[in-house]
Amino acid sequence: SLSSVAYATQEILLVLSAGGLAYLTLASWVGVAVVVLLALVVASYRQVVHAYPGGGGSYEVVARNLGRNASLVVAAALMVDYVMTVAVSVAAGIDNLVSAVPALYPHRVVVNILVVVLLSAVNLRGVRESGRAFAVPTYLFVVGLGVTIVVGLAQTAVGYPPVADSAGYGIRPTEFDLTGLALVFLLLRAFSSGCTALTGVEAISNGVPAFRRPKDVNAGRTMLIMGVLAIGLFSGVTALALISHVHIAEDPCDLIGFRGDCHTEGQRTVIAQLAAAVFGSGSPMFYVVQAGAILILVLAANTAFNGFPMLSSLLAQRRYLPRQLHTRGDRLVHSNGIILLGLIAVLLLAVFEGSVTRLIQLYILGVFTSFTLSQIGMVRHWNAELRETDDQARRRRIHRARAINALGACMTAVVLAVVLVTKFDHGAWLVVIAVPALFALMRGIHRHYVEVRRELEPELDGMTLPSRVHAVVLVSTLHKPTLRALSFARANRPDTLTALTVNVDDGDTRVLQGEWERRDIHVPLKVVESPYREITRPVLDYVKRIRRSSPRDLVCVYIPEYVVGHWWENLLHNQSSLRLTWRLRFEPGVMVVSVPWQLHSSRGRELDRPRSGPGRLRRGFVPPSG
Fold first, then answer.
1. Which of the listed residues 311, 409, 537, 540 has the most CB atoms within 10 Å of its CB?
2. Checking DSSP bridges between strand 170-171 and strand 255-256, what pairing results, if any?
3. Residue 367 to residue 193: CA distance in whole angstroms
4. φ, ψ at 563 (rounded to 5°)
5. Taking the model in full, what pTM does it have?
6. CB–CB of 280/272 below 8 Å?
7. What single-letter DSSP state applies at residue 566?
8. C-alpha–C-alpha distance, residues 162 and 151, integer Å
9. DSSP at 500
């Protein structure tokens, strides 16, 4: 959650700069409003931590108190949130990397995609998050940025305020004569952009079980510490940005006096400009601050690779998403969820060209949807608690907690409305479509699974046996695969056994009939005509005639197939059998049996050896010797 400090102030300044330099002074008031909201949301989620020490956060609260539909809305919002966490965090991290190494600016989209691919690969390998692995970059970021703020404010106090590289730039406004409602709308847009500082606040409530005992007390203390740090860093960055006169615009070409080609060179991030103003561009501390920002943003993205697969697995387990998202790969991770998250994040980064500002518009709408529903759920939770207790001291604590959550629900609902209105035409409409679409998709998937389960439920009188079994062996040429299929069909002792061939060439059919008689095969060979030289339709018609004459009988169709060792050989064989198999599967009372014949190319192929998954020895698995 601390990683959002790296870009929240920058987003406020970017919105205000649309009106020109004069409006940047309003950033302090916008920052105060964001700080008040951040403190309130932290206080609200501390109540969630104490009420639900089993974890689960917003989804668990809403599922228990507001019902299935509301919980699916939260689940859809959280899934969008996880995807945007990856895209925004990686894009912001690469922006800070480009600020330190400007030569990478033309390649930033490719670098963004490579980072997401790397994160996906690392998580597919089963690397687990570690407290120590996260601690070092987090402390580096907090200490580096904290020292920057303290030193910068100290320099200001002694009369030598830091001056940003962009202080001399003018800003070409894109909006004019902002008064009255237009000015209010600009402030609301800046406020909604600054609310990105709240993203990630709910993370601790999701992971309460990971804390030491007493879990809820330690998690609550951690959330308080996190809130204080986030407020301190955000306030310090905003104040120092105004003191050092950081000027930034969404399009560098709107900066008057910008040094360099605005079409091929980007601006430094606010964090980079502050570090350069306080310590000097290229100084060791400048690179320390940038390294801390890059690492914590990349690790914030990595957190989503744990949260998204777990949430999608939980939803898949409850039949709201495809079952494939619940299964684990050979590294004991939810591989399909990781791959899906990585693909969507790569697509977003490519479409939006790695722009944090453009991606932010899609971000916070889902965040505040889950915030609002979670706080409403907590109010209902406390109402239920009040009905079950008569202890006056406990009732006073519940009343206080309910008041905090009620105020939090009202404030986050207002912010949700503000974000929706101010960001809608800037890209938030995509989330307005995505969340209901995900909700409808999950409801549809659940309905499908329920209907399939009901349809497959065994009847009380058990399964009805077929009256007779008719075996049909498809024959194109009399060769070893055909003879194997005939032998296998005969071994199953059907009531009738017929070899079936389709006459697409009179000469080939006569040769087959002659070979059949010469070998004295004791299975009748049935020839069906095909005036249009088609194979699939005559076979289907023959099978349907058997079914119409005896509806209670079972027809078993045996299809000889080649097993090849190279992918390109599949293009040369088995195409007719694949089409037939696909069509026959839709016929009731028909079974399709594939009879494989391994060609020499398949025998030379090395079989895949089972690999030991991580943790098998720990669970007591001992591989057999020899």
1. 311
2. antiparallel
3. 12
4. -105, 115
5. 0.79
6. no
7. S
8. 9
9. E
Q: In whole angstroms, what is the distance from residue 440 CA to residue 435 CA?
A: 9
Q: Provide the β-strand partners of residue 557.
A: 472, 592
C-alpha distances in Å from residue 307, one per residue of 56, 80, 82, 133, 613: 11, 12, 7, 17, 22
**Peptide bond before 214: cis, by omega within 30 degrees of 0?**
yes
The predicted pLDDT at position 175 comes to 72
The predicted pLDDT at position 437 comes to: 92
pLDDT tens for residues 138-150? 899 999 999 999 9
What is the average pLDDT value for the chain, to the nearest integer? 86
> Residue 35 in contact with residue 328, Cβ under 8 Å?
no
pLDDT at 462 exceeding the cut of 70: no
203: which 2 tokens? 């993370």
Closest CA to 173 of 260, 255, 266, 257: 255
Burial of 450 (0-12, 13-18, 19+ CB in 10 A): exposed
Task: Identify the DSSP state of 613.
Answer: P
| Backbone angle region of 623, left / alpha / beta, with phi > 0 → left and psi within -120 to 50 → alpha | beta
Using the structure block, give the residue that is written with the tokens 């519940």: 398
**And the tokens for 616?**
């098998």
Number of residues in the chain: 626
Residue in the block written with tokens 């912010």: 415
Q: CA–CA separation, 499 vs 482, rounded Å?
A: 9
- Euclidean distance between CA atoms 262 and 267, whole angstroms: 9
Q: Is 408 exposed, middle or buried (0-12, 13-18, 19+ CB in 10 A)?
A: buried
The model's confidence at residue 365, banded by pLDDT at 50, 70 and 90, is confident
CA 98 to chain centre: 26
pLDDT at 425: 78
Amino acid identity of residue 107, one-letter, is H
Largest CA distance in the chain: 110
Sign of CA dihedral 379, 381, 382, 387: positive
Among 466, 491, 603, 625, smallest CA distance to 558 is for: 491
Give CA–CA dist 63/440, Å, rounded. Answer: 17
Phi first, then psi: give them for residue 363, nearest 5 degrees.
-85, -65
pLDDT higher than 70, residue 623: no
Strands 496-503 and 469-474: parallel
Angle between helices 364-388 and 429-456 (to 10 degrees): 60
Q: Positive or negative CA dihedral for 245, 250, 254, 257?
A: positive
Cis bond before residue 436 (omega within 30° of 0): no
d(CA 304, CA 247) in angstroms, rounded, equals 32
Bridge partner list, 591: 556
One DSSP character per residue, 510-529 reads HHHHHHHHHTT-SS-EEEEE
Residue 496 has φ and ψ, to the nearest 5°, of -135, 150
CA 351 vs. chain centroid, Å, equals: 17
Dihedral of CA atoms 175, 180, 185, 191 in degrees, nearest 10, equals 110
pLDDT (mean) for 472-495: 92
Helices (H) and strands (E) in the chain, counts: 22, 7
Q: Which of 424, 398, 410 is nearest to 372 (CA)?
A: 410
- Residue from 477, 483, 472, 480 nearest 509 by CA: 477
Cβ contacts of residue 465 below 8 Å, gap of 6+?
none
Chain center to CA of 563: 37
